[in-house]
TrEMBL record:
It comes from Kribbella pittospori. Transmembrane segments: none annotated. This is DinB family protein. Pfam families: DinB_2 (PF12867), Pentapeptide (PF00805). It comes from the Bacteria. Residues 96-238 form the DinB-like domain. Gene3D superfamilies: dinb family like domain (1.20.120.450), E3 ubiquitin-protein ligase SopA (2.160.20.80). InterPro entries: 5peptide_repeat, DinB-like, DinB/YfiT-like. SUPFAM superfamilies: DinB/YfiT-like putative metalloenzymes, Pentapeptide repeat-like.
Length: 262
């Protein structure tokens, strides 16, 4: 099977009567793609930034973004709070996330031994997802909001795209930590966010900060917290999706956890 990577420039390419049956697109830019008279039966699209900005995603002339967002909010109560703009709203949003994740961690614990280390279709395992959220908290609370010079816990899991951009990984472990350690570190990071939003003021939310990935683009404390909330809800969705696949026996390719992405 042919593989096209970032070095292959397919922008503006035209596919006429092409057979892309079973093709897989990972971390690819499909913005502005136009499809006409196509067969998309059983297509599975995951676009975590679908609702960002003033964009649209049309299927047969209908913008489906509002429907997708409404359904996700229905499936995951509390998700609708992720863009809260004041301290009370942020506290409520974080409390909802804590309850949601606690229930999901309990669910994983009740499943067969080793479930937390299983990767579904090459995605991050449950344990690796929690490790990534540790890293996301370090990036957006520790580095961006608190402006710590070295905020990174060693067990944090960085995504491959960030690694490929030349990010410093020297503070991160290269071995898989025990799941008990992951839970302990994760609990500490959750408490750190809880304590921060418990004391944050409207004035602090408006303070300027640097984007940790692109310092030339300004952020605010509030926008950094919104990134944390988005990370939490998106990765919770992934985790639930994979636990569902594992428990139903319909996971497709299920392998031991490796260097995957969630």
């Amino acid at each position: 099977m042919a593989t096209f990577t970032q070095s292959d420039d397919l922008r503006g390419a035209e596919f006429v009567a092409a057979d892309l049956h079973g093709a897989r697109f990972v971390e690819s830019d499909l913005s502005g793609v136009v499809m006409r008279g196509v067969d998309v039966g059983k297509a599975d699209i995951d676009a975590p930034w679908l609702s960002n900005g003033e964009s649209f995603f049309r299927v047969n002339g209908i913008d489906v973004i509002p429907y997708v967002e409404a359904e996700l909010d229905r499936r995951f109560p509390g998700r609708e709070l992720r863009r809260a703009g004041d301290p009370d709203g942020l506290r409520e949003a974080w409390a909802a996330l804590e309850r949601t994740w606690a229930a999901t961690v309990d669910r994983a614990a009740a499943m067969p031994v080793g479930t937390v280390d299983v990767s579904v279709d090459g995605e991050w395992s449950f344990a690796q997802t929690l490790r990534h959220l540790v890293h996301a908290t370090d990036v957006w609370l520790g580095r961006a909001i608190l402006e710590l010079e070295q905020p990174f816990h060693p067990i944090g899991q960085m995504d491959t795209a960030t690694k490929n951009d030349g990010a410093d990984t020297s503070a991160l472990t290269t071995t898989e930590p025990a799941y008990a350690e992951v839970l302990e570190v994760r609990a500490g990071h959750v408490a750190t966010v809880r304590d921060f939003v418990a004391a944050v003021t409207p004035e602090q939310l408006a303070e300027a900060r640097k984007n940790p990935h692109a310092p030339e683009y300004p952020e605010t404390v509030l926008s950094c917290l919104h990134v944390i909330l988005e990370e939490e809800w998106e990765h919770h969705r992934y985790a639930v999706r994979d636990l569902d696949a594992i428990s139903s026996g319909q996971a497709g390719q299920v392998a031991d956890a490796g260097d995957a992405e969630g």
